[in-house]
Every structure is written in C-alpha cells, then in structure tokens.
Amino acid sequence: MVRSRSQQGRKLAVLTLLAQTFACKKCKKCFRKDAQEFEDCDEYCPHCDNHFVLDAITPTPALRVEREDARVDARMLRDDRLRAEQQRSVFDMTDATERLG
Q1: What are the angstrom distances between the C-alpha of 29 and each of 19, 22, 68?
Q2: What is the C-alpha separation between 79 and 40, in angstroms, rounded?
Q3: Coil, strand or helix: which one is 73?
Q4: For residue 53, which of 22, 81, 32 has the smallest C-alpha distance?
Q5: What pLDDT is stored for residue 95 in this prediction?
Q6: Residues 30/13, Cβ–Cβ less than 8 Å
Q7: Would you give the DSSP letter of residue 31?
Q8: Is 28 left (phi over 0), alpha (psi -120 to 50) or beta?
Q9: pLDDT single digits (tens) 12-42
Q10: 26, 53, 69, 86: which could join 43 in a potential S-S bond, CB 3.0 to 4.6 Å?
Q11: 46: which residues sit within 8 A by CB, 6+ positions away?
C-alpha cells in the first residue's frame, strides 16, 4: 500500500467503545452492553433472560487439616466404635483370687 505524503503526517482518530461484549452460557449468543450505564436489568441475557452476573462471595478463613484419601492412608481417622472387653484368659492372674476361692 502506497501512502502519499499528506497521509503520513496525519494522525488517525482511534474509536473507543465503552460497550463490552458478553456471551451467554445458556443460549450461546453474543451481545453487547454499555459499560457506563450498567443497571440491574443489564444482568440478564436479552435473548433468553438468563441471569449471568453472579454475586461475589467473601471467603471465610478456616483452619483445616489436609490429609490423604482415607482409602489410601487411614492414620488420621478415629475409630468411634466401642472397644470390646478384654478377653479373659485362664492364665490371667489379675482375678485369680475370685477363681481359686
């Protein structure tokens, strides 16, 4: 493309658009919204009325213990079942006085 000398010194005006382009996840159609005048009614898709603006949720800090999968490493699990009574043996001398008379 050959430019004449008059076009080389001239600056071109840049067109700035304040409209943002959105794509609806439900109907897969694209549409534009003006960013300066964004209102509550602009949070919906004009084609299918899908609400595409989600409210921000502030994360709550929490202290948790990270562990492996319980099927792989069960050392961090606590067994809440009741322990069975200890098995009595003939050779156990703790209650021998009751047995011998």
Answers
A1: 16, 8, 43
A2: 53
A3: coil
A4: 22
A5: 66
A6: no
A7: E
A8: left
A9: 677 777 888 888 888 989 988 887 887 887 8
A10: 53
A11: 31
Strand pairing partners for 31?
Answer: 22
* Position 1, amino acid: M
Three-class HEC string of 3-24: CCHHHHCCCCCCCCCCEEEEEC
Quick one: how far is CA 15 from the chain centroid? 38
Averaged pLDDT of the chain: 76
Residues in Cβ contact with 29 at an 8 Å cutoff, skipping those fewer than 6 apart:
23, 45, 47, 48
Q: Which two tokens stand for residue 74?
A: 């069960």
88-99 pLDDT, tens digit per residue, is 676 767 766 776
